[in-house]
Task: structure prediction
Amino acid sequence: MGVTTMQDKAMAKDHSAPIIIAHRGASGLRPEHTIASYTLAIEQGADFIEPDLVLTRDNVFVARHENDITGTTDVATHPEFADRKKVKVIDGESHSGWFTEDFTLAELKTLRAKERLPQLRPDNAKYDGQFEIPTLAEIIALAKARSKTTGRTIGIYPETKHPSYFASIGLPMEEKLATELKAAGWGGADAPVFIQSFEVDNLKRLHKLTGIRLIQLMDAAGGPADKAVASYKEMVTPAGLKAVAAYAYGIGPSKAMIRNGDAAPSSLIADAHRAGLRVHPWTFRAENFFLPPSLKNGVNPATHGRLSDEIALYINDGVDGFFTDFPQIGAEARDASKRPHQP
Result:
C-alpha cells in the first residue's frame, strides 16, 4: 500500500473544493495590489489573496502588476523622480516608464496606488492616491492576522513576475522567495501557499528549493519568456502536461483555454487531471468587456454582466479553483454550486 503524502491530501482537498483566488485582491472594487484590496477580498470570502511580486533596488519584494509602475502609481506626478523614467526591454518588449528596480523601498513607499483600468472601473479611481505599495512581508502579515480573526485559513498565491529579467539584472527571485516564505513557517505542500509563474525554469528552480505547491501559468497564445518550451500550446499536449507534472502541482490556464467565449469546453481540465495536475483558470471579471457574448448585459463594456453564471459553468466543468477580481461573486457562485467545498 502506498504512503499518503501531505501533497496527496492537499490535492484531494483541492479537487473537492474550488478555491477562490482573489486576483490582486478584490481588484474589481479597489485599486489592485493594495492592502485595502486584499482586506476586502478576505472579507468577501476569498481563500487566497494574490500578489504579483517584483523587486526593489534594495531587493525587497513588493506587489505590483508589473515592475513598470507608470500606470498603477502616481510616480509621474513626483518631480523628484522625473529622471528615473527609462526605456527598457523586458521579455522582448519595449517599455517606457518608471520601474521598481530603480527605486528603494523607502522611495516606493512615498508613492500612492491608482486604478489601472479607470475607464472600466471609475469607482475604483475614486480611491486613487490613498494606498501605499505593499511589501510581501506586509501581505503575509495580513493573511496571518486575518486567519486568526476570521477563524479560517487565508492563504497567499504569489506570482513571480519576469523572473528571468530580474535575474539578468542581478536580482534573482527564487532563493529569496523560498527563504522569505520559510521564515513565515511555510515550506511544504501543506502550507496555505501556491507559487505561480508564466516561466518554466523559474518554477523548476523553486521545485528544488521548497515543497510549496507550484502552478504553471499559461495563455492561449505565445510561450514562456524563458523559452524553456516553444509555446504554451505545447504544454497542454499529453506529453507537455506530463512534463509540467514533474515540477508543478497544477496549471493556471487562461479561461479561454477551457471555454473560448461561448464555445463548448475543451478537454483541458480532464487532460490535466489525468496528468495529476490541478486546474486554476484566470481571470473572472464582471464587466461586459471580459465576458462571453451570451453573458453580457447590454453594450456598455463597463456594465456588469452575469459573472456568477460564467463561474458556475467552470465549476461544473470541474475546475479546482479560479482567479477572480470579484471574490464575493465567486463565493456566491461556489456556494450555489452542488460541489462540496471547504474553507
In short: The radius of gyration is 19 Å. Confidence is low (pLDDT under 50) at residues 1-15. The longest strand covers residues 213-218. The CA atoms of residues 115 and 125 lie 5 Å apart.
